[in-house]
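Task card 7
Instruction: Convert sequence to structure tokens.
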Amino acid sequence: MTADTGMAFVIAQHRGLDQPEILVDLLAASTKMLVVQVKQGMLLRPNCVYVMPPRIDMTIENDRFSLRQMQQPPGWPKTIDIFLCSPAEAMRERAVAVILSGLDGDGSAALKAVKTGGEITFAQSDAKFGSMSQTAVETGRIDYTLPAFDIAKALSALASQAPGRGVLSIRSGELRT
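Output:
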């Protein structure tokens, strides 16, 4: 994927305080885009990759990140559901939701808000840990289920269509715009 898509990429993941913070470095080594860990009030800018800090609930309000200490309800955290609802409200059809490899079904509950806002949704078909993407697919609110590499190609194609967003056609691993 090129570094000049005009899109901002936000990585929301489950991560405890005791886990090493290597994702920013890993992503920075594989892209020419600026990769940063999100800080309170940080402005969302195009052609950047933002990584959610550990044990934080994160939202976007007025193109700025809002962070708050995660409330620990019983069971698996719902940080991705919390995050996905905010661009659905704030950016509506300008936002795209991608559910990648992960455990549990976090993210699936937010898909109703996501689709109401007009977002395009993707789920990873080749996920090493497939329960998050599979649960998302089972909601019936995923537009495209693709291998990770093809999701990147589809995002690049969407970026080239903005702002009108024509029709994205994906069939048997081929991407047509």
